[in-house]
Write a structure and sequence with these properties.
Length: 64
């Protein structure tokens, strides 16, 4: 698995990742603990980037 980029806003963070050609995102809680990893089979890197951005901007909710 390879980390591609990191998105941050306030105390939220998300990383885009790729594993065996499948893009995804890893999401962190405000304390920096990983709370979820999602893979988006059949979708582009831009799709994973959008998910990461939506999380750090409060649009995408994880674990609610």
């Amino acid at each position: 698995m390879q980390e591609l980029s990191t998105y941050m806003s306030g105390n939220l963070r998300a990383d885009t990742i790729v594993d065996k050609g499948v893009f995804g995102a890893r999401f962190y809680d405000p304390e920096g603990v990983i709370i979820a990893t999602e893979f988006y089979k059949g979708h582009s890197e831009a799709y994973a980037e959008d998910a990461a951005e939506n999380y750090v901007f409060g649009i995408k909710k994880i674990g609610v």
